[in-house]
UniProtKB/TrEMBL annotation:
It comes from Ananas comosus. Belongs to the TIP41 family. Signal peptide: none annotated. This is TIP41-like protein isoform X2. One of its GO terms (biological process) is TOR signaling.
Length: 223
């Protein structure tokens, strides 16, 4: 498990009239990590990382100890609503212009779901941020990995819902997932500074990391 798991922290959004609930939590995220089961990242310090307790106990980390997760959130319908939910691929995109407008922010919060400092060799961090404006709400679920001297990985999930004129109508919810990743060696070859300590904030490097996966989806309701 990560060094810090905030199992009692979560973010939930509920549309009362339709019963649709979106939920973001550490347990489901770690289930995704377990299912994806990536191979361990090979690093120069691997010999040290393989022993998290006494060396004599020979505890070998042969699993993905970066806790990389494909998790995009959880969704459900509240009891007593006879509906189903699924995400459908779409050409619709999140309205970035609406998000950049100077609307007042009615509510904002950031929730840390889990974090690990990789034995002082970097950081593995999963957070979710949400903000609510008069015309919409928007959230960013971000997994950020920096293995010093080796790798940077960013997995962003953005979810957006514009408020309609009819509050009882089923909401239109769009989700965009984007995965970026690069080795420090490949970034250095492009002339990008290889000092990992300079990238404590992923926003400083996000547009320099190549996209390896991207998809746009819309939440569909079936009866």
């Amino acid at each position: 498990m990560p060094e810090m798991v905030f199992g009692e922290s979560s973010l939930s959004l509920l549309h009362i009239s339709s019963g649709i609930k979106l939920h973001f939590n550490a347990l489901d995220a770690l289930r995704g990590w377990k299912q994806e089961s990536l191979p361990p990242v090979e690093v120069p310090a691997a010999a040290k990382w393989k022993f998290r307790s006494k060396p004599s106990e020979q505890v070998i980390l042969d699993y993905d100890y970066t806790f990389t997760t494909p998790y995009c959130g959880s969704e459900m319908i509240e009891p007593n609503y006879e509906k189903g939910l699924h995400w459908q691929d779409t050409d619709e995109r999140i309205d970035l212009a609406a998000l950049s407008s100077r609307e007042p922010i009615l509510f904002y919060d950031e929730v840390v779901l889990y974090e690990d400092e990789l034995a002082d060799n970097g950081v593995s961090l999963l957070t979710v941020k949400v903000r609510v404006m008069p015309s919409c709400w928007f959230l960013l679920l971000r997994y950020w990995l920096r293995v010093d001297g080796v790798l940077m990985r960013l997995r962003d999930t953005r979810v957006y819902c514009a408020f309609g004129s009819n509050g009882n109508a089923e909401p239109v919810v769009l989700r965009e997932s984007c995965w970026r990743e690069a080795t420090i060696q490949s970034l250095s070859a492009q002339g990008i500074p290889s000092d990992s300590a300079a990238y404590g904030d992923p926003n400083l490097i996000v547009h320099k990391l190549p996209i390896i996966m991207q998809k746009n989806q819309r939440l569909e309701i079936s009866r």
